[in-house]
Amino acid sequence: MIHIAGHYIFDGKNFHKNAFISIDQKGTITHISDTGEALKEKSKMMFYSGIIMPGMINAHCHLELSGFKKSDENHKDLSYFINSIITKREETLNNNRCEYFDKLMFDNGINCVGDISNTEISIPAKAKSRIKYHSFIELSGLNPKNIQEKLFFAEKLKNKFLEYNLNCSIVPHSFYSVSEELFKSISEIKNNSPVSIHLMESQEEIDLFFYKKGKLYDLLNKIFPEFIQFIDSTEKLKQYLNLFNQSNIILVHNTFLKNKIISNNLNLYFCLCPKSNLFLHNQIPDKDFVLENTDKIILGTDSMASNNNLDVFDELKTFANSYQIYELELLLPMITSRAAKALNFTNFGKLKIGNNPGIILLENVDLQNLKLLNESSVKRII
Ligand SMILES: [Zn+2]
């Protein structure tokens, strides 16, 4: 049994000044002290300068694209990006770096990851990882004729994940790449929460849905000329989302989101990937959107195809600087308790007796005002 004390303990929601937690050999929390208790001498108590908090959660990642070498040409459009992912997919999958990045994420303080999986290549790394993954088995498909084939593929892949006791659900890639019929079929799958959907990542999606033109429109027309699914109103978007009212829904990116959504839907979360958005589109979601939905926001790194690391704390800093939001009380739930709730990781993201969420130290913060600083950093303790 050891005791870990700090200037503050952040339990996922609240701060406890000069408190400590007790941890057994397995890393399970056995006691959380009252405020001020850390100031009393105690054997096997280590005092850290900073904030003790639960391991972090990266809510959106594509581990299987870890071998992808990020292009130096930033701010290319989405159709360029999709094309290059398609053409380089083989090379990327062969150059599998899942294990390397899995370990790096753990070392950097991440304990849970929501990870998009189109293939089985991440299974070996996940099966032996110290990180808890929820894998989103992602489907695309505009041709309603192929639905059974797609679902069969997804079920088969899901069973492979389940063989290794890895949590997973089957999800639609986005509104532009999945037919209405396939959306419905996916929504009918039982016990399939959470669901992740890429949404309004680029201006091209706006051009496609609202103006029926642009490069993405042209690309889709080439792949599937019968494309007619234009999500050009809040009402239409709601209809699609309501299909999944039994699940947690994580809308990913939201960079160009123009629709006013639906924040009264309790199961809805907005995952932002600020570094990936800045790299690909030099744009992040509107500040008004962020301020209106702060209590729904979680963060993800996206993949190495559009980022220089998979470090969710780095995303938090970019988010803070982009929106000038530095209050730790607002920021930390995005990468701990709220993200855990969205991903159904009930034992993670908060410090609670009986949990083993991983323990990290947040250093170099403004302790007087509990604010994030540019020089803030995290370090794994347990
Ligand atoms: Zn993604």
Q: Can you walk me through this structure?
A:
The protein is of the alpha/beta class and 382 residues long. It folds into two domains: 82 residues, Roll (Urease, subunit C, domain 1), CATH 2.30.40.10; 287 residues, Alpha-Beta Barrel (TIM Barrel). The protein contains 13 helices and 15 strands. A hairpin with a 5-residue loop joins strand 3 and strand 4. The protein binds zinc ion.
Summarize the structure.
By secondary structure, the protein is an alpha/beta fold.
Task: Please give a handful of descriptors for the protein shown.
four-stranded parallel β-sheet, 382 residues, 31% helix, 2 domains, Urease, subunit C, domain 1, seven-stranded mixed β-sheet, 22% strand, single chain, globular, binds zinc ion, alpha/beta, TIM Barrel
